[in-house]
Every structure is written in C-alpha cells, then in structure tokens.
Write a structure and sequence with these properties.
The chain is of the alpha/beta class. About 55% of the residues lie in helices and about 10% in strands.
C-alpha cells in the first residue's frame, strides 16, 4: 500500500507542478500573442494603406546606385574544405565589383591558411589575414584582426570603405546582397538581411531542419517588430553591414577594439551598443521581381513569391544533437548570461522589453521542455484512469479545479496560435509540406533548447567568470558539392608542354626576382609570346586565340566602347550564340568579367591572346590618330605581322601595360592596383595620373615607371629596324 500512497502524493505534486507551469506558460504565451497581434495589425495596415499608394521597390533601384567600396570580413578557424568554396561561389555570383574580401585565419591552422591562400591566388580582391594569437581565441578577436587589416588596406589602396560586412565561412551569399547594402548603408548604420538555413530534404532530419523553422519565424516576424517599434535590430553575425560611422564609434568606445572579445555573441552586442548610441538600424526584406536574380529561392508548393525571392543569406546548420546543443549553448551564454552583465536595463522601456524577450530564453527553454514532459505524464495518467486498469480509482490530477482547467484551456489556445504562426512563416519560405513538418519539429526544438540551456548553465557555473568562455564553434559544411580546383603552376605546365626544360626553369626561377615567370622566360628568349599565351590559357582553363590585331569589327568596337576596352585592356573579337567574346593578354577576374557583362547587358567570355596583341589592337582600333611611339609605328607593325610573325611576336614581348609593370617593379601590389582600376576612367585620364591622384604612386615613381615602359618599347621597336 505504500506504493499506492506514494503514487497519490505524486499525483498531488503533479497538480501543483501543473499549476505553476500553466501560470508561467500563460504569461509567456500572452506576451508572444501581443507580438503576433502587433505584427499582423501592422501587416494589414501596410497592405491596405501603404502599398495601395506605393509599389514595392524593384531591383532597378539597386542598379541605379553607384557602387561604393565595401569590405567583406570572414573569420575562419578549422574551415578547411569550406572557405575556398565559399569565396569561389561568392566572387563568381556576386553582382558587384567594388568590394574586397578579407579572410581571418590563425597561425596554428595551416590547412585553413592553405585554403585561404588558394582563394587569394585566384582572385585579386581576396586577402588572407593571419591573426596575432594562435587559435581558437574567439570570433570577436578574429574580427578585430581582420578589421585592422581592412584599415591597413584602406591606407595602402587610398580607399575608404562605406560598409563593413560580416559573414561566416559556410554562408551562401545572394547575388544582389552587396547592391542592397550599397543602397541602404548611406542612410543607416546597421543593415541586416534575413538568414534562412537550407532545409534538408529528408523529412526526418529534425535537428538540422528545426533551424529553418525558427529562423523563418524569427526573421519573418520578430526582428521586423523590433525594428518597427524600438529601432533595434539584433545582428545575426552574418548578412550584417555596418556603416563607417558605426565602426568609428565602436573603435572609439573600445579604445581601438571594435568587437568585444568578452562576449561569445559580439554581433548581438553590437546591435544594442549602436542603438543605445542613437544610431539607425534597419532590417531589410527586399525581393527582386526577376526570379533569375534570386537563385537561392525555394521552389515548392506554398512558397510566397516575395518571401521566397528575398535577398538573404543561406547556410547549413548542425545536423547532430551534440553540435546543435553546443552551438545553441554558445548563443544562450552570450545573450542571456553575458548579455545581462554587459547591458543592464536602459532608460528606454521598449529596448528593455526586447532585452527581456531575449533573456527570457533562460526560462522559456526550460519551461517549454518541462511542459512537454508534463503533458506526456498527464496523458498517461488520463489514459490509465480512462481504461480503469487494475480497478483503482485515483483522484483527478486537475482536482476538478476550475482555475487549473481554465489555465490549461487558455494555454491550449495559445499553443494553437504558436503552431499556426510557425506553420505560416515556415510555409511562405519553404513550402506547405515543410510547414506541416514544422509542427512536430517544435517538440524536437524544445528538447534541443532545453539541453543547450543546461549546457550553458553548466558552462557559467564551471568557470570563474562568465566572460572567460572560449570560442566553442561548430564544424561547418559548405552547401556545395563542387570542390575548388587549385591553380597549377605555370612552370609545370610549360614543362609538360615541352616548351622548356627543367634546367631552363631553374635558371628562370633564380633570376626572376619580382617579375612573373613568363616575363622572365620571354627576356631569356626561352619561349615565344604564343607559347606563353597557350600555357596561360591552360592554367586559367580558358581558350587561346591567336588573332590579327589589325582586323577588328567596327560594330563590336562600338558595342564595347573605348572606356571599357582600355579600362580592362580587352579587345572584342566576335559574338557567338549571343555571347561577346573578347581577348585579353592575361585572365580577367570573375568580378571584373561580371561587371563588364552587366554594363553591356550581354553575356561575355574571355580568351587569352599573345602578349602585345591586345595593346596594339586597342591603339589601332580606338586611338590610331594619337601621336606616340606605338602609333607612329603602326604601319610598320602591320607589315611585320603579315610577313614575319616571329619578329612581330618578339616586338610584342616588350609591350608591357603600365599597371603590370608597376606591380613587377614593386611600386604597387596587384590587389591595390585592382582596387584603383575600379575608379579609373580611361576616357578622362591616364592610369599613371590616376595612381598619382590617389597617392598610390609619387610623381617621381611614375616618371621612373614611364621611362622603363618607354625603354622596353624602344627595345621592341628596334627589332623593326633590324628586320627592315
């Protein structure tokens, strides 16, 4: 009978526990309901009274704004196999030109450094930053190292970035993201775009997929209301752009340290710091009308067009319980525990309210799981009572209490509201089936959040100071199955082609100095410009084209225009299946290639030409009437091309572009030159004068550069005299 007595005591205890849980759930549920009502009232108001008079802005507004320089900052610790793919996809797909990419790595992480260096070797606007301390420190420390490198690059390149963008190594960036930041950062100090996790195709992937449900509602409703009511936008740490004014304030407040190294959620902290300083923050849902400009959209039944095509960040999240708990524990520690210490309650009650909504996670994460456990126990007990197993008649858990019954009824209605909200926001972005599956995933999310809350509490209790928690980052997987191929060395390609011998290669490497290997081999007469062009084309996976620079199509010259032709040193050859094919003496970056395609509104493709061909073609096609050394010899060069192609190529081997020569002589770096070329307009000034104007070259250095270029050309043209 003692067991029966204990069971009855358990039932009474369960009733008291149910009452307490019901009261807390009612309070939290009503609070959520208020936010829901505010969102939907605002939505109806804007639908009926705002967008009946004003149409949604389309992508033409993004394209109308002049590109301002932007810096993308990506911290990377143990991201081998991820960071190179992320950069490759971003640089290939971004519909923007005026930006630089900075990757933060650690001195004791050589694998990630190697990946980053591969990206740097392929793209001149990608830079590796090696942190001062061995890793892992924390994300904020890595970002501070990156920011220092960004500011150093500004001085070296004579440029001032207008926006500073945060991304993680596993992010997939929307093609129009930088254009959106370029539009919004002029009037705002923090711009945040939505983050939508990739939804795993397997319905049973509850751990990975529950992130999609949570972010759909968080960035579909909660952050929208925060910005509308309090002007407060919590940074997600990715897809966030800070204005120069904001970074200056953060550097000033931190005595030269912008990102707080005392927090695991430095991005969240910054949103509050900037808002308390009176800066303007905005959360932007911006959807292009053209579906082709939204390649990251979901294509499923139930997806809403504007929600599905929104400019956003897509990424993979952990798919195992342990990694998910680790990640969420870090968030809880930073926001709930560290945030409470770093940001006491302010004088603004609206900001305080949303701070409370963040910090209540320490309570709601526990209560949600306990409520599920309580519900399961009540169902079991009611089932036993209904079936009358063993003939025992136990008192009702509710005890015929009207108050408790009412509480449970109200909580049931509030739960239905939560289910409807989660279903709706998941459906409009991921589709109807995903919205349905979000309902059972709510239970799984409760378990993950409960375990993460316990881990966060244990972390806080196990250390002397909550500020000393280390960077317990999760392992990332980039959502792409393609692997980046490493660029092969030019010397190895020439050896394989039988153009040079190992002895010649060794001699070349010993005497090259700052010069590229191809230039050295040309000077040593070990290969021709055609052989070099063929090898360069193979290295860059491009086609080689040996064309006549004196035969050009007038229509194509007009189509390309003198400005683009001289800015990028390209010469149009033909149009094949609607694609403009142009020649260049070295590979053009994918960033610049995309910029040319956008300006021409025509797909483009590049081929590699022998050294000097494009330069002669440009002068002959656009500036044949100018008085200079090459122009005066154009007739002789044309005759030489027709009668002695080998001698012509020898002349061309001495024709160097001013920018390439400046890099070769160590007067400027390739990345700084690339940034300078973005603002260069060849229709109004010469490149040398532009570099002097930007203070990248001194007048004396320019004079030395011009004299060396002239000396090289004279050497080449002297061949004409020998032939004639």
């Amino acid at each position: 009978m003692a067991g029966i007595d204990l069971f009855i005591i358990y039932l009474y205890g369960l009733r008291i526990f149910a009452f307490l849980i019901a009261c807390i759930l009612l309070f939290l549920g009503i609070e959520d309901l208020i936010v829901d009502l505010i969102y939907w009232i605002r939505w109806i108001w804007r639908k009926c009274f705002i967008y009946t008079r004003h149409r949604y802005a389309d992508e033409q507004l993004l394209f109308s704004k002049k590109e301002k320089p932007l810096a993308i900052m990506v911290p990377a610790w143990k991201e081998v196999g991820v960071i190179a793919q992320m950069v490759n996809v971003a640089v290939t797909e971004l519909d923007y030109e005026n930006y630089q990419f900075f990757i933060g790595t650690y001195p004791n992480d050589p694998e990630t450094q190697s990946d980053a260096m591969e990206a740097c070797s392929r793209f001149e606007n990608v830079h590796q930053v090696i942190c001062a301390l061995p890793g892992p420190t924390n994300k904020a420390d890595c970002l501070n190292n990156i920011l220092a490198a960004v500011l150093a690059f500004e001085k070296a390149a004579a440029v001032k970035f207008s926006g500073f963008i945060l991304h993680d190594a596993e992010d997939v960036i929307s093609p129009l993201e930088l254009r959106l930041f370029n539009l919004m950062i002029e009037q705002n100090d923090l711009v945040q775009i939505p983050v939508y996790p990739y939804l795993r195709r397997n319905w049973w992937s509850f751990t990975a997929n529950h992130y999609a449900d949570e972010f759909a509602e968080w960035h579909g409703k909660e952050v929208v209301i925060r910005e509308a009511l309090a002007g407060l936008v919590p940074s997600a740490g990715v897809g966030t752009c800070f204005s120069r004014r904001a970074l200056t304030l953060l550097l000033d407040e931190g005595d030269g340290i912008a990102f707080s190294t005392q927090s695991l959620t430095e991005d969240y902290d910054i949103g509050i710091r900037l808002r308390q300083a009176g800066m303007r923050e905005i959360f932007v849902h911006y959807s292009p009308r053209d579906p082709s400009l939204a390649p990251l959209r979901e294509r499923r039944l139930g997806v809403q067009r504007r929600a599905g095509q929104v400019i956003c960040v897509r990424e993979n999240f952990p798919d195992t319980i342990s990694t998910s708990v680790r990640q969420k524990a870090r968030w809880i520690t930073g926001i709930v525990f560290q945030g409470s210490l770093s940001f006491p309650w302010s004088d603004d009650w609206l900001i305080n309210y949303f701070l409370w909504r963040d910090r209540r996670g320490g309570i709601s994460n526990m209560i949600g799981f306990l409520a599920v456990m309580l519900t399961l126990q009540l169902l079991i007990i009611w089932m036993i009572g209904y079936l009358n197993l063993g003939g025992w008649d136990f008192p009702s858990v509710l005890g015929n209490s009207q108050i408790l019954s009412t509480l449970l009824l109200l909580n049931g209605l509030l739960l239905c509201n939560r289910i409807i909200q989660r279903f709706y926001f998941t459906t409009i972005f991921y589709g109807f089936w995903s919205g349905l599956m979000a309902i059972p995933r709510m239970v799984w999310a409760n378990l993950i959040n409960f375990l993460a809350n316990l881990k966060a509490i244990r972390q806080a209790l196990a250390i002397d100071s909550i500020r000393k928690v280390a960077w317990d980052k999760t392992t990332h997987v980039f959502p792409s199955i393609e692997s980046s191929t490493r660029r092969r060395q030019l010397g190895q390609i020439l050896l394989e082609q039988g153009v040079i011998t190992p002895t010649q290669l060794q001699k070349c490497l010993e005497s090259s100095g700052r010069r590229r290997i191809g230039r050295t081999l040309l000077d040593l007469k070990m290969l021709t410009t055609v052989q070099l062009g063929v090898a360069l084309a193979k290295q860059q996976n491009l086609k080689f084209h040996n064309f006549n620079p004196f035969q050009t199509d007038f229509y194509l010259l007009e189509l390309l225009g003198e400005g683009l032709a001289f800015k990028y040193s390209i010469l149009p050859l033909c149009v094949v299946s609607g694609v403009l094919v142009f020649a260049r003496e070295s590979a053009l970056s994918k960033v610049a290639l995309g910029a040319i395609s956008r300006k021409l509104k025509l797909p483009t493709r590049q081929v590699i030409a022998p050294l000097g061909r494009v330069q002669i073609g440009l002068i002959n096609s656009y500036r044949s009437d100018e008085s200079n050394l090459l122009n005066s010899n154009l007739p002789r060069l044309k005759s030489l091309f027709e009668h002695d192609i080998i001698a012509f190529d020898n002349v061309c081997s001495h024709l160097l572009l001013l920018g390439d020569l400046a890099v070769e002589m160590g007067l400027i770096s390739q990345s700084v030159l690339g940034q300078a070329l973005i603002s260069f307009d060849p229709l109004y000034q010469k490149l040398g004068n532009h570099l002097v104007e930007l203070d990248l070259l001194s007048v004396d250095s320019l004079q030395i550069l011009l004299e060396e270029q002239k000396r090289q050309r004279l050497l080449g043209l002297s061949i004409l005299d020998g032939v004639s």
